[in-house]
Design a protein that fits this description.
globular, about 10% helix, about 1100 residues, four-stranded antiparallel β-sheet, mainly beta
């Protein structure tokens, strides 16, 4: 599975870089684990007698090597099951080149190798994955082995070992119709059609490995046989014989299958399928159509996925009664490894995969898909701190320490660094010199030069809501190895979960869990005996004010089989109030007041109560089609690729809109709206009436369609009491001081008809603007205008000065220097807010932006003073996008929500490790060069890699001939003294915050809940959602325009945060709020309609208006 994007001899060509219980918080110290307590103890092989080692030997004269067989080092799985019905879990190891091994559990973690007598190697060739099933329903578990390897189809048939009830097994895959001949990696048995018997899905790797996507798409469907053998296969159980229904069921689709899990993902009582796919083919999420067919809904349910999908687990990670999905990738968690091992992605290839091939958005990081209800998931891997686990294989989400919260266990290790960039350069050079006839000795030298590195497993422990720390070393899991498959189960029947790991070229690891012995917490074990061995029962428990849910599933992780029981950690709870088991047959059973540290058994045959129909829950909002309101506007973004000239931009600077503003423009007492257009698209006015909204044509706006509209505001400019319109112009695509950047004022005739006002002040040296606020700074009775500007076009992050225009009898005069000298050097401004901070009757304002602090400008009776330098809270620099006034605690003092980029981004920043940017013409070719930097081992290093950086600055390739040299170079080593004279700035805070006004210009900083950190808060409104008399907030925003190696910020937004009446907010889950703002959301606005109902509208870049309406709860 070594990540060859195309054949290894050519791959170098592709590597260019062209809950409403308490106040939520992102920090919770009481949940930080006690690092002095080891949770696991490695059991010595002399004790356990488990000596299995998945030893791999390469042979350059055959296909048994990585150059000729991409999946050579993919490793094997391990499974746990009681195969002799003695009440103890036995262990089965898959061997690739070595024999499979079966150990019977003798008790006290001592095992006996019974492989030879059990006859479990009949037909064995190259075994990958193992699962268990009572296929003939005789009460004895059978073994199913998935096979592959560098073999022809007839030599890699899967194996089915029927338990003979005497310690031996008989291979009968052919007789049952399950001798699949794909490159099988893992299989799962489940009842796909609810007919009472178990069907089988065999997941396969692809025979067409080592191809570029274009060649692959051309060949994979060239004939029926090729299409079939490059797909996974679904078998329906027809009277004990399995019939292949792959094509009829809708599953004949190419995939590089590595991770497999079956679960009721959409909670309809039918089993769905998730397959994690390697290489460029996207994962598949097959939703059961309840008629024997499936439909891949990966695009509808997720907004992005991993690129190199590997191991997978599906479980309720955060105890919200919704199952989350974790898929592994191979992103390095070390700077040097990330710069030497990781393949790059260029914009043209990304565009082909997404827009031409129609694949999903895929990024080279782990994915933690947070289930938010409504069939939607948000990938929060970056926020949770679990995105980078190196070359990873198995992931298991279990409560290992019995504290009531699941941990995340990951196996990893690089047997051979096939994607080492320097190696690939050597391979490319050899290919150029020798063509396809590379001498065997040269090939051998190249092979031996591939780096190899053992790594320790990772164990993520919850430290606060949705945020995790790696505690593997402290927990006793610090052993280094090449680890692949892992299985968890209670090997010693003491109530906690032990772990066994299948290592490559090393004896397997057996880890005993010490949680029960060390009295770390209480437990409950639930056994679900269904009508078949694979029932996928859902078990829910409630204890005190906590609840948990486990859907029992055997196949999860990587090529491995887990103990199929539900394990719950209870912490210090001594009694479980309720235990409920839901069977897929539609029946349920409950038990009450169950003592802790006990084992419960539920039998499906004894369940009689039907599962009640789910009641439709009331929500704060209901979705609506904005077109039914008359709002038919669809934003159409003009094409401009910022990355062509600014390769190292963190995200596009040209796609910031559209923005929405409201006001009664015709004096009828109803709120009307203006929505900005992209360059080439005019802004649009909508007049509201009792029938909804009506689009009105405005020649003035149409004539200015060539402008890129940014924010706009309705206000009375000329003192005639009707609302005029100011529209800011922006856009990174235009030249500096372009007339297209001219801001515009449109004068209202009182009836909602507008004409453009000619203004010399606005046409003189136009700037790339973004925001605007109206402020009568001198209290002379007319409205002055403050405009916030962003970057010098094509010169990110260098800013253009913002401007304060005084309105003098309808003429604008730039008074920035005299009145507001501190504004010009403030930096990139994203938002402005006029507000009376100190309640002195003089309007103040707040400015926020990228690489800036929070500018609090106090009006000193006609001039302004920035308080930023006097308050360390305000000096904290961020990627601030919005600022919103509210009063969280009804104390009469104005508080402020300041929206930041959030934590769900690959960049990290803190006071100790600021995230930095430098910019100048480093290579002296006349263009601005951007360098993003982070601190690594005490020194600053580049964020971007050698390929991407050298495309912007070619001297880098000459100065650093190898990737290793570049990876080990500091920023100073690379850019030298020019750093001293370059533009420099930094960020120390990425989280969105609320500033609590304590009076006397003193603020307290409080972080928004973690749900408010999952997306960039580009906009925010203050509204009393729950009608308790306190102002709540709704936050929204996304940035789809990141460069292709940075996962786009695309979480479903529209988060309701309810005021706690003091100093913080309580988050409302999406399934309770009813807000699901999908798309590239840029702004939101709350509007009252003619019936006094509240509408919540949102704009999306390159998309339609979104709408929700307040519903009665």
């Amino acid at each position: 599975m070594y990540r060859l994007l195309i054949p290894i001899f050519l791959s170098i060509l592709m590597m260019s870089c062209n809950e409403q219980k308490k106040n939520d918080s992102t920090t919770d110290s009481k949940n930080i684990p006690d690092k002095s307590v080891a949770i696991f103890k490695k059991v010595n092989a002399n004790k356990s007698q488990i000596t299995f080692s998945n030893t791999i030997i390469h042979d350059m004269g055959s296909l048994n090597n990585l150059f000729d067989f991409d999946y050579f080092y993919n490793g094997g799985g391990v499974g746990m099951e009681d195969l002799n019905n003695d009440g103890l879990l036995d262990v089965f190891f898959c061997g690739n080149q070595v024999n499979n091994t079966l150990y019977f559990n003798q008790g006290d973690l001592v095992f006996e190798d019974v492989s030879q007598s059990a006859q479990i190697n009949t037909g064995k060739v190259w075994s990958n994955g193992v699962t268990f099933v009572d296929i003939n329903q005789d009460g004895w578990m059978d073994i199913y082995v998935s096979q592959g390897g560098p073999n022809t189809r007839y030599k890699r048939k899967n194996l089915l070992f029927i338990n003979q009830q005497n310690g031996t097994f008989e291979e009968k895959a052919e007789q049952y119709g399950l001798a699949d001949m794909g490159i099988s990696t893992q299989s799962v048995f489940f009842d796909l059609d609810k007919d009472g018997d178990l069907d089988c899905l065999v997941m396969n790797e692809n025979e067409l490995y080592g191809m570029d996507p274009i060649s692959f798409n051309r060949l994979v469907n060239s004939n029926e046989e090729t299409a079939y053998f490059n797909s996974s296969h679904l078998y329906r159980n027809d009277g004990g014989i399995f019939k292949d229904i792959t094509k009829a069921a809708g599953l004949e689709k190419p995939i590089f299958g590595l991770g497999l899990a079956v679960a009721d993902i959409n909670e309809d009582g039918w089993m769905d399928i998730y397959m994690a796919s390697d290489y460029y083919l996207p994962d598949a999420l097959y939703i059961n159509n309840q008629d024997g067919t499936f439909t891949d809904r990966i695009k509808e349910t997720t907004n992005q996925i991993s690129f190199y999908g590997m191991g997978i687990d599906i479980a309720d990670l955060d105890n919200d009664d919704l199952q989350d999905i974790f898929v592994l990738d191979m992103a390095a968690n070390d700077h040097v490894r990330s710069k030497t091992l990781m393949a790059s992605m260029n914009t043209k290839r990304f565009d082909y995969l997404v827009n031409k091939a129609g694949f999903h958005y895929q990024y080279m990081y782990n994915s933690l898909q947070k289930n938010i209800g409504g069939g939607k998931f948000n990938n929060i891997a970056q926020l949770s701190g679990v995105a980078n686990t190196d070359w990873s294989w198995s992931v298991l989400m279990n409560d290992f320490d019995l504290d009531g919260h699941k941990e995340i266990h990951v196996t990893n290790g690089y047997r051979r660094y096939a994607l080492d960039n320097d190696l690939q350069r050597k391979v490319f050079e050899a290919r150029q010199r020798y063509g396809r006839n590379i001498p065997l000795e040269v090939k051998q030298q190249l092979y031996e030069s591939m780096p190899s590195e053992k790594l320790s497993n990772i164990l993520y422990k919850r430290k606060s809501d949705l945020v995790y720390d790696n505690v593997a070393k402290d927990w006793g899991l610090g052993d280094f190895s090449f680890s692949n498959g892992a299985a968890s189960g209670d090997l010693d029947n003491d109530g906690d979960l032990d772990i066994i790991i299948n290592n490559m070229d090393e004896a397997a690891f057996v880890y005993k869990n010490l949680s029960v012995e060390n009295q770390l917490g209480n437990y409950l074990k639930v056994i679900t005996n269904g009508d078949s061995s694979e029932e996928f029962a859902k078990v829910k428990i409630s204890a005190g004010n906590t609840s948990q849910m486990v859907e029992v599933k055997r196949v999860r992780g990587y090529r491995s089989a887990q103990e199929p029981k539900a394990f719950f950690g209870l912490a210090d709870q001594s009694t479980v109030d309720t235990v409920t088991v839901y069977w897929k047959s539609g029946k349920m059973e409950q038990k009450f007041n169950v003592p802790a540290n006990s084992t419960l058994t539920f039998n499906e045959s004894e369940a009689t109560a039907p599962i009640p129909s789910a009641l439709e829950k009331s929500t704060y909002f209901t979705g609506l089609d904005a077109k039914t309101l008359g709002l038919d506007f669809t934003h159409s973004e003009n094409f401009y690729d910022d990355f062509e000239t600014e390769i190292l931009l963190p995200y596009k600077q040209s796609n910031l809109g559209p923005f929405i503003t409201k006001g009664d423009i015709n004096g009828d007492g109803l709120e009307d709206i203006h929505i900005g257009g992209a360059a080439g698209q005019s802004g649009q006015l909508y007049i509201q009436s009792s029938r909804g909204f009506t689009k009105i044509d405005s020649p003035a706006l149409l004539n200015d369609a060539h402008h890129e509209d940014m924010e706009s505001v309705f206000f009375d400019f000329d003192g005639d009491t009707d609302l005029d319109l100011f529209v800011v112009s922006g856009g990174n695509e235009f030249a500096e001081y372009s007339s297209y950047h001219t801001d515009r004022i449109y004068i209202n005739d009182g009836q909602g008809h507008y004409t453009r006002l000619q203004s010399d002040a606005l046409t003189a040296f136009p700037k790339n603007g973004k925001s605007v606020t109206i402020i009568d700074f001198d209290k002379d009775g007319d409205n002055d205008i403050l405009v916030g500007n962003r970057v010098i076009p094509k010169q990110y992050p260098k800013h253009q000065a913002s401007i304060l225009f005084e309105n003098v009898d309808g003429k604008l005069i730039d008074v920035t220097q005299e009145v507001l000298p501190g504004l010009e050097g403030f930096g990139i401004i994203n938002d402005l807010l006029t507000t009376d901070i100190n309640n002195d009757g003089w309007p103040d304002f707040i400015a926020v932006g990228e690489w800036t602090g929070i500018g609090v400008f106090i009006n000193e009776q006609g001039t302004f003073k920035n308080m930023e330098e006097e308050d360390p809270i305000l000096k904290e620099k961020g990627w601030w996008f919005s600022v919103t006034e509210t009063d969280i605690n009804n104390d009469g003092l104005k508080d402020y929500v300041v929206g930041n980029v959030g934590l769900n981004i690959k960049f990290k920043a803190s006071e100790e490790k600021p995230f930095k940017v430098y910019a100048t013409d480093f290579d002296e070719n006349g263009t601005n060069d951007i360098v993003l930097s982070k601190k690594y081992k005490g020194t600053y290093v580049p964020v971007r890699g050698r390929e991407c950086s050298s495309q912007q600055m070619p001297f880098i390739k000459e100065k650093f001939e190898t990737y290793s040299e570049f990876a080990n170079a500091s920023l100073v080593d690379i850019y030298g003294e020019k750093l001293n004279s370059s533009y420099e700035n930094s960020v120390t805070e990425l989280q969105s915050i609320v500033l609590i006004n304590k009076g006397n210009l003193v603020f307290e900083k409080h972080l928004l809940p973690v749900s408010g950190q999952t997306f960039p808060v580009l906009d925010c409104i203050s509204i009393d959602v729950n009608q308790d008399g306190y102002e709540d907030i709704i936050t929204a925003g996304n940035i789809y325009e990141t460069e292709v190696e940075t996962p786009r910020l695309d979480a479903i937004s529209g988060t309701i945060l309810l005021s706690n009446g003091k100093d913080g907010y309580i988050s409302v889950p999406h399934q309770e709020s009813g807000l699901f703002m999908n798309g590239n959301v840029k702004s939101i606005e709350a509007i009252k309609n003619a019936n006094n109902e509240t509408l919540l509208l949102n704009t999306t870049n390159n998309g339609p208006i979104g709408g929700h309406k307040v519903s009665l709860r």
